[in-house]
Amino acid sequence: MRTLPFIFSVLGATLISGGVVTAHAAEGVFYDPTNAASATGKTIGHELIKTIGCPGRGLLDVPCKVPAPVDSDGDGVVDGKDKCPNTPAGRKVNADGCELDSDGDGVVDGSDKCPTVFAKTADGCPPPLVLEGVQFDNDKATLRPEAFAILDKVAIGLKDWGDVNIEVAGHTDSKSDDEYNLKLSQRRAEAVRDYLISKGISADRLTAKGYGESKPIADNETEEGRFKNRRVELAR
Q1: Is residue 19 one of the residues assigned to a domain?
Q2: In this structure, is residue 80 part of a structural domain?
Q3: How many angstroms separate the CA atoms of 161 and 116, rounded?
Q4: CA–CA distance from 71 to each of 18, 79, 85, 86 (Å)?
Q5: What's the burial of 96, exposed, middle or buried (CB within 10 Å: 0-12/13-18/19+)?
Q6: 87: which of 49, 60, 147, 165 lies 20 to 30 Å off by Cα?
Q7: What's the pLDDT at 57?
């Protein structure tokens, strides 16, 4: 006669136990919590609940499907680990989901026009370099002897610019007519380009362009101003 009460007792304990588990699940206590210290990123309870069902389901129901991790910006790093969750599409990122800055100049590669050159400018490229002291014979494209030592140092410095393409820009003052100045500035730019190539700078990296008198940096009404305007620059 004691068998029946014993069975009810065991059954009652089982149902109570099951009810406790279901109640915990229903309350969301063990459902999909995060735990950064865990190897899976979830608590042990989360792994358990995958085997006993979802909140509101019975103990032996089919386990719920675990939702796929969300990667809102599509950079390959899920939101839970992405420290830069709004990366523009197509940009290369590191393990934290942040854009790469290959040269460490503070300009990310996606916005850096010179990604192999350290230059803290808006576009990551060095500012134009005026070749101070590089002068030519009057009305000619012949480099004066004192220009060679300056250009030798420039050639060494350009090797630190990596594979950046460089424009050798020639400029004149406003004396003579526009067409003459344009041709003279082009010849002078080509003379500097040729010299840099002779010092080991790849010809593929260098282009020569003459601007004539169109981009003065000083007043052409004074001798000092005209002297400054007669120049050659290196620019990205």
Answers
A1: yes
A2: no
A3: 7
A4: 36, 5, 8, 10
A5: exposed
A6: 165
A7: 62
User: What is residue 188's three-state secondary structure?
Assistant: helix
Contact between 71 and 49 under an 8 Å Cβ cutoff? The reply is: no
Distance CA 125, CA 112 (A): 7
Distance CA 206, CA 47 (A): 61
pLDDT at 86: 86
Contact 116, 214 (CB under 8 A): no
Look up residue 205 and give its two tokens.
């990296």
**What's the total number of domains in the chain?**
2
Q: In Å, how far from its chain's centre is CA 91?
A: 8
Q: What does the alpha-carbon distance between residue 194 and residue 153 come to, in Å, rounded to a whole number?
A: 15
Residues of the domain holding 224: 131-235
- Taking a C-beta distance cutoff of 8 angstroms, is the pair 30, 24 a contact? yes
Q: 3-state class of 232 per DSSP?
A: strand
What separation in angstroms does the CA of 10 have from each of 7, 21, 166? 5, 17, 86
Question: Residue 93 pairs with which residues in a beta bridge?
Answer: 99
Hey, what are 21's tokens?
A: 């588990």
Token output for 196? 């840099």
Looking at residue 59, its amino acid is L
- Nearest 5 degrees, angle CA 70-CA 76-CA 82? 65
Q: What CATH number does residue 202 fall under?
A: 3.30.1330.60
The phi, psi pair for 40, rounded to 5°, reads: -95, -10
pLDDT digits (tens, 9 = 90+) for 18-77: 444 444 444 444 445 676 666 666 666 655 555 455 666 666 666 667 778 888 888 889
Distance CA 125, CA 116 (A): 9
Assess whether 137 and 229 both reside in one domain: yes
